[in-house]
């Protein structure tokens, strides 16, 4: 490759494109590292969009890129890619080199998430901090609008978009896992730019201008206009009047952290606005976006890290009196979940609950991870003692979800617990719980909600929400900071109401709307669904036990049946619709998961042993009534059910009808089901004995002949005779049955 001074930028880009198709991957990366080190930003500016697109793929999916989602650690390229894209690697060095000169790169608005794109095309600036002061207005009109992003924002935008962009993969390429290069890079970027310990490492380059433009600060405080209702002047600002303000100098310290967070949240979560979510409740509305399993797994990783990031807030920074002394990074930890994630994640999860397939893959949805932030405090605890401890009181004192006041996480996220739990119930009652994976999913959710003090916290939140309105009249002139509206969180701090009732009501109405009909998690209406689920779980538990017993019985009889060629080493044939692993120990695990799920549900909804026994008895009597319609008449004996005389004759009507037919089938029935000897002997008996023998003259199936030594000896000789002619047990059995049928067919009495 020629020296930088001897080569024009156009030739540099052309040569790099040619090298990418002709040279080995390692050599291409090595030359790219040299180019990044040797060339000035003016020339690197022209190759940057091509290089980013070559790595992450194009926004339209035509160019696949390096396939980071399918690149595993066992690949030869893996270490090369990870070193090149590392936060301290050559690619990020290129980003910082261009960032120092403040170049801009355009992204068409058509590739933004649906709600954002629609708002911009309608001439309204959406509630998306990433867009502030970044819209580029072409002369051709609003339909060709684009975003002008700085190098860091552009790089992260393309990185985040590659997860959700449909691509034309080749056959056999749809394999991904949690150890893919993309998943590891997401985790690496989150830990680097949102560190739980220390601060964000500074950029290796000094910016040419005095500051980097972070997202612009919000407008002055917005007057409160009711729960969940925000001023139209904030929400519906025309895009031609974008604010032009001076960035807060304190924000320079963490502008990369905030930019990365905003890009990830917008691209991965903001695919459904509140209006679209409400319309999706109607079956006539087609869903605009369906996340993949890889997408949901990355969202779960994001949620877990943000909880860890938020819970790493220093204890001395929790009190409101210390707010003025906190660093920008600590202030971001205080508000990151509530301000940036809550609203968009709630609507995203609602969509998953309503549209995800009814199978065990639902376990990857980030719901359970979000409602347990105390799991990510970084404190090492004993799993056994931690299970009994429940929600740590120390964590509850640290849970800060707003910039100006402390709050309990559960109360500020009440709908995440109550509304989504109701959605989970609606899914579970339609799921096959005999499947061990589905049973495990129910067990995990029940275990989470059965933590000692969690149900009480949820009930307290519901009580606060249902408190009468008249107690809040004196607070109507206060200001409220909506979680859905956050530009730069470091902008002017606003007074925030510290009343829990007001806070819970604002949370519910802000997400569900002013006219929402709240259904209590511990109310009578939902209790009926819970009791139905308990019945389903108990029925599935009994079915799993029967399958387990049947598996053991089949295994015991397998050696005997194999002698006839009918045995099978695979016991899966005994199950209906079960998965391959639902056998043996897995079925026993299913029974255990369901058993413990019942215990947890009883703890959550305070069902005592008497209520549970009555519920199970009701279910058992219903099953007995159903079975009694299928079984013949019988009585309960010491060893089980015993047929009565009526029960022995209850199917006799079908045999009588068969033997009464005058055709060929009737002749066969009279031969095999009636006994001519008993009928003739009955004519020589007295009237009393004739009545006793009346039952023996009725059509019946008799197997007495198989108890004859003569018959057994004859069968043994026939099997030995068949073995001489190389007939197996199965073939000999079929020949014997065929011969017996032909004998009966030829020797049947002919009716004249």
Automatic annotation (TrEMBL):
**Entry keywords, A to Z:** Membrane, Transmembrane, Transmembrane helix
- In the UniProt record, the signal sequence range is none
Q: InterPro entries in the record, alphabetically?
A: Sphingomy_SMPD4 (IPR024129)
Specify the protein's topology with respect to the membrane: Single-pass membrane protein
Location(s) in or outside the cell: Membrane
Q: Does the keyword Kinase apply?
A: no
Q: Output the superkingdom of the source species.
A: Eukaryota
Q: Which GO terms describe its biological process?
A: ceramide biosynthetic process; glycerophospholipid catabolic process; sphingomyelin catabolic process
Q: What is this protein called?
A: Sphingomyelin phosphodiesterase 4
What is the scientific name of the source organism? Oncorhynchus kisutch
* Encoding gene, per UniProt annotation: SMPD4
